[in-house]
Design brief:
Layout (H helix, E strand, L loop, with lengths): L1 H31 L13 H4 L8 H22 L5 E3 L4 E3 L7 H12 L3 H11 L12 E2 H19 L2 H14 L13 E2 L4
Antiparallel strand pairs: 1-2, 3-4
Helix pairs in contact: 4-5, 4-6, 6-7
This protein binds 2-acetamido-2-deoxy-beta-D-glucopyranose.
Length: 195
């Protein structure tokens, strides 16, 4: 009985090591097998071929970050504003967060920090007309609306002192308040701001 047991467990061990060996072999083959264009797995790490940004003086790094932001935000202004977001491959827009122009609200603090005053003013001119109606077939998501819209408005107000941002934050927060009218007092996932 004991011998049979030893015999079986030895076989089980052998099976396990064969399976492990085959698995390792497959991975090695996968890595080394030449792909259709004749090269095998690309071991070069693209990170190494990029400039070493850490060595740049911080002013130059800041300028590069600002350039990247201006690239993205000016495309938003050109192709998507006042919709929510830019679809950057097609140069069209998408309404993903209530349809009130979420990118403008989200970007207020960045626009201010980067001293992009004309963009900031253009955003304010849309924001001051926002009415926060339910534009879409979906209700307004509480969490997303608080972090993006209310947060954006309050950050913009804190930095610029523009009263319209504070009053819009208040107006929107009032519309969101009924989310707490649940049995537990925990906020509902979403609400219709028009009811
Ligand atoms: C989108 O706009 C950019 C910048 O104006 C342009 O280079 C690009 O070709 C456009 N893409 C499409 C799909 O039209």
């Amino acid at each position: 009985m004991a011998r049979a047991h030893r015999f079986l467990s030895r076989h089980a061990r052998n099976r396990t090591s064969i399976a492990t060996g085959a698995f390792v072999l497959l991975i090695v083959l996968y890595i080394l097998w030449p792909s259709r264009d004749g090269r095998s797995f690309d071991f070069s790490t693209p990170v190494d071929s990029r400039p070493n940004y850490n060595k740049w003086p911080k002013e130059r790094r800041a300028e590069a970050v600002k350039e990247a932001f201006v690239h993205a935000y000016s495309a938003y202004e050109e192709y998507a504003m006042p919709a929510d977001e830019l679809k950057p491959l097609r140069n069209t827009s998408i309404q993903n967060f209530n349809g009130w122009g979420v990118s403008m609200f989200d970007a207020l603090d960045t626009l201010w920090f980067m001293d992009l005053k004309p963009e900031f003013e253009r955003a304010i001119s849309y924001i001051s007309k926002a009415e926060f109606h339910r534009h879409q077939k979906y209700d307004v998501m509480f969490f997303e609306t608080v972090i993006r819209y209310v947060g954006g408005l309050l950050a913009g107000y804190a930095l610029s002192g523009r009263e319209v941002l504070l009053s819009k934050a208040d107006e929107l927060a009032q519309k969101l308040l009924p989310v707490f009218g649940t049995a537990t007092g925990m906020p509902a996932f979403a609400i219709n701001p028009d009811t």
